[in-house]
Amino acid sequence: MIVLGLNTAFSSMEAALVRDGDILTDAREHLPRGQERRLPGLVAELCASAGISLSDLDRIGVVTGPGSFTGLRIGVAYARGLALVTNAAAIGITSLEAAVPQGMEGTVLACLAAQRRPPDQTWWVQGISEGQGIADVREVPLPDLSAMLAGFHAPVFMDGAEALGDLASKLDLRPLHPSAITAALKAGVFDPAAHPPTPVYARAPDAALPASGT
Description:
Layout: E1 2-7, E2 12-19, E3 22-30, H1 35-50, E4 59-65, H2 69-86, E5 89-94, E6 107-115, E7 122-129, E8 132-133, E9 138-141, H3 142-149, E10 156-158, E11 173-174, H4 180-187
Parallel strand pairs: 1-4, 4-5, 6-10, 10-11
Antiparallel strand pairs: 1-2, 2-3, 6-7, 7-8, 7-9
């Protein structure tokens, strides 16, 4: 099985190719803007370097967020479009699933910093069991996250852990880095029906439609 992994959820755009669980090649470019113009070319270059045609793809794993609103839409739209023309299955991998290594056993917690400025610091949180999310991603403020982690003995994949203060030294903390490689590896084993390529925003949009009659 040949799988293309995509991660456009953050300021760096990533793509990776995996065949039967083995990493063939990957690429990463820091590109806060213009990902929609560069992504097709990056994928074409990646395929050429691996001697693979887009028609060879069996699955496309795309990081669905949380992350950059625009970046998520670019990656998901490209993955869906590519799936249509190649007949490959498009698989959605949350940013938190894409940050926990494939093959990680047991249940862990993944925490991705959302709002970083005190006093309104928040994290996107998802429980991950055997590599897959066991609940929807939710946004949690620092006091609630600290209470959640008190007495927590399983590994915690987290960025911004310094905000936890003394609690951090009592946890089994691991670095949190969502990647296209992990997305590709997990897309090869995830059930497509349970992991649709749908953006995960984890927060309601700031804009709202006007009330009826106004």
